[in-house]
Amino acid sequence: MSISLPTPNIAHLTEEDYEHVYEPAEDSFILLDALELDAQLIRDDQPTICVEIGSGSGIASTFLSQLVGPSSSLIISTDINRYACEVTLRTAQANEISLNPILCHLLDPLLHRLKSNIDILVFNPPYVPTGMTELMDTQNQRDIGGAWAGGQDGMIITDVILDKLPELLSPIGKMYLVTVIQNKPLEITRKMESKGLVCKEIIKRRAGRELLSVLRISRI
Amino acid sequence: MVRLITHNMLACHVKNCTKDNFPLSFSEVELVIRPAPENLEFIQRFLPKLDWPALVDTARSLGDESLPEQMPDQWTEDQLKALHHVLMELHVEEGNMTCRGCGHVYPISNGIPNMLLAEHEVGR
């Protein structure tokens, strides 16, 4: 059974916006395609709390909102970049849905309350392998560079979340994570399985020089 | 916009701040009421995720007295509608959220809560 959903409208975003916020590209679209592949599964679960880390343009949060249906889930979108939070809000308005952007690092202010409470977690992380200096600089600048620089194996930021994932997911919880081959998805899978989670690559595609995939990590 | 459903999920995360770090108290708020499509099935499904005393206190601090002190065991449709209004329709556009434990102030501007901390305040 396959469900087809329209791509969110982002025509309101300008060149100027894209100087500060990551413009949706192949990695954004493979994430939407992964969510669409799982649309029936996600709907059947009736997720109550969904969180996207690093929402950028807001395209994935908006897509998720449209997928689960309006007013049927709380969708929280975090970003370390103020401009991204504002753009996420504008993308929600342009698509007539409701998002809740929070300016913060990863999930920091939410960890206290969202333990074992996240039903869907979406993360298209800064996955490009870079030196540690570039990673630290781009995170501190809280601007567009933070959208890609990922440090060693492109995994420094992602690992912070993966280490906490077992305590974050609800009993029906699922995480959708964008990876490139340099992130060593097989190692991620082994690591998550050692924590008692199930990890499955649900879509894989080459885009230019990048071999992209989306992993679904869940309790069951 | 910071709706109360979102506010109920936010805690202070300053290093070593573990006492009274939730809920954050609102001050100097610009409150806007915007009708939201009603989905009472969702509101009901959300009940176990709520910290009820925090929600009641916060709603009252904003002048909304519609919620009962104790979370009802059995909900009437009118009670669920009142809860929908409090959770989904009250928007704090501008203002501050202050930690009752350590006093840290998190500002809200243009409807976006700024929960970033300076490097020396971070507990990670």
From TrEMBL, chain A:
Alphabetized Gene3D superfamilies for the sequence: Vaccinia Virus protein VP39
InterPro entries registered for this protein in UniProt: DNA_methylase_N6_adenine_CS, Euk-Arch_PrmC-MTase, SAM-dependent_MTases_sf
Swiss-Prot/TrEMBL keywords: Methyltransferase, Nucleus, S-adenosyl-L-methionine, Transferase
Keyword Nucleus on entry: yes
GO molecular function, one term: protein methyltransferase activity
GO CC annotation terms, alphabetical: eRF1 methyltransferase complex; nucleus
Subcellular location: Nucleus
Entry's Gene Ontology BP terms: methylation
The keyword Heme is annotated on this UniProt entry: no
Family of the protein in this entry: Belongs to the eukaryotic/archaeal PrmC-related family.
Name by which UniProt lists this protein: Methyltransferase small domain-containing protein
Source species of the chain: Kwoniella europaea PYCC6329
Source species taxonomy: Eukaryota, Fungi, Dikarya, Basidiomycota, Agaricomycotina
Automatic annotation (TrEMBL), chain B:
GO molecular function terms listed in the Swiss-Prot or TrEMBL record: protein heterodimerization activity
InterPro entries: Trm112 (IPR039127), Trm112-like (IPR005651)
Coiled coil stretches, renumbered: none
Entry-linked SUPFAM superfamilies: Trm112p-like
Species of the source: Kwoniella europaea PYCC6329
Self-association state and partner proteins as the record states: Interacts with TRM9.
Name of the protein in question: Multifunctional methyltransferase subunit TRM112
GO biological process, one term: rRNA (guanine-N7)-methylation
Annotated CDD domains: Trm112-like
Pfam family, one: Trm112p
Protein family per UniProt: Belongs to the TRM112 family.
